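[job 0412] stage=complex_fold ligand=manganese (II) ion status=START
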Amino acid sequence: MRFAILSKGDITSNDIRTKMKNYLCEFDLEYDEIEPDLVISVGGDGTLLHAFHSYVHRLNKTAFIGVHTGHLGFYADWMPKELEKLIIEIAKTPFQVVEYPLLEIVIQPKNGGEEERHIALNETSVKTPEGSVVLDLEIKGEHFETFRGDGLCISTPSGSTAYNKALGGAIIHPSLESIQITEMASINNRVFRTVGSPLILPKHHTCVLKPLNDRSFFITVDHFTKTYKDVKTIQCRVAREKVRFARFRPFPFWKRVHESFIAGEQRER
Ligand code: NAP
Ligand code: MN
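[job 0412] stage=complex_fold status=DONE, emitting structure tokens
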């Protein structure tokens, strides 16, 4: 089996990376950053998002696992104190894989330029640092509403505990192949009207955002942000691809949510 390790870059994470790399090579596993079967992220969710995007072109061949040295670590299951146990598990077992749904984003420019396709593990958001974004929201090809406000967030089920949660969205179990749309401070009065509730769309229900004014705005994809202008459409739907997490022991989603938001075991830094 080929593996790669991505570190957050601090001393603790780098030490863990070196230690794991040496041990796993002693167990005759091959270190390969180009075509790994398993990618180990050492850090927090930010590191795992980074790892995910580094291997987004080969999701069907790569599984991910997180060692936790960051702050929250919703995606990172293993504590540094469990390192030896994890190394032995990786070395000896063909691992189980759990799959979570992802979000596909296709951005079509106005001038007939080439479209961009992105995959998000957490979410995409369309927002502006000044004034408001104005956009038409279409669902399944039908006009749904004209949104005016700070922006919209479209999240995956596993991303529903991130930005989506801060926007009042629901936490969605990743067995539900869906995407969730949440509003950021919509303007609602006699002139402008939005639904005001988070919407959950099943697989195959595409939503399209059409920016209406000429202002530039931000589109975020997980931890990336880029400025755009002259965008015709931003199309979002459940992606064909899935993310695969290596599981060496059960860690059910609701337990993960409980530990992250209600009563987490005191996590080490
Ligand atoms: P960050 O500023 O460190 O992320 C904010 C927090 O979200 C961190 O505590 C991070 O955990 C946590 N997080 C990331 N993915 C999560 C998930 N799926 N479930 C629960 N918590 C999660 O930046 P980052 O680490 O690069 O993460 C980027 C993400 O930040 C974006 O995808 C977005 O979801 C989130 N974000 C949240 C807000 C908000 O809540 N108001 C605003 C902007 C962006 P770690 O500490 O382990 O990294
Ligand atoms: Mn972070």
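The pocket of NAP (ligand 1) is lined by residues 44-46, 49, 70-74, 122-123, 158-159, 161-163, 166, 222-223 (CB under 6 Å).
[job 0412] exit 0
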